[in-house]
Amino acid sequence: xxxxxxxxxxxxxxxxxxxxxxxxxxxxxxxxxxxxxxxxxxxxxxxxxxxxxxxxxxxxxxxxxxxxxxxxxxxxxxxxxxxxxxxxxxxxxxxx
Length: 96
Fold this sequence. Notes:
Layout (H helix, E strand, L loop, with lengths): L2 H28 L2 H30 L5 H26 L3
Helix pairs in contact: 1-2, 1-3, 2-3
């Protein structure tokens, strides 16, 4: 895969996951105290993993065409961690 389509794919998923995080934050604000803690913990985990992926994406954007391929593995791993965390949150709290 070429660099630009790869970056666009990651950015699109990040945008989607940002929307998912915002939904969880809204639910957390409306939840009862005991459930709110669970939401807040999940949101914090998602934000941390998302931010790590954003950092990888920023590095890839700045990398030369030759160097970005070497960085792709780390970005793919960060991508997988965010994806798994989002899926866990969807299973735990549902998605609407």
